[in-house]
Amino acid sequence: MNSVKYAIVFLPLFLLYMLLKGGALAVGLLYRLIHLILTLRAGPSNKLLAVQHAKRIIVIGSPGSGKTCLARRLSMWTHLPYISLDDLYWGPEWKRSTDEQFHKQLGEVLQREEWIIEGNYHERYFTERLQRSDTIIVMDVSTIEAISGVITRSLNRFLFSKELPIGVGQESVRIWDISPRFIRFVLGFRRRIRPKIWPLILQYGEKRNLIILKSKYRSCPWMSPDRRLSP
Question: Whole-angstrom Cα distance, residue 195 to residue 144?
Answer without folding.
Answer: 18
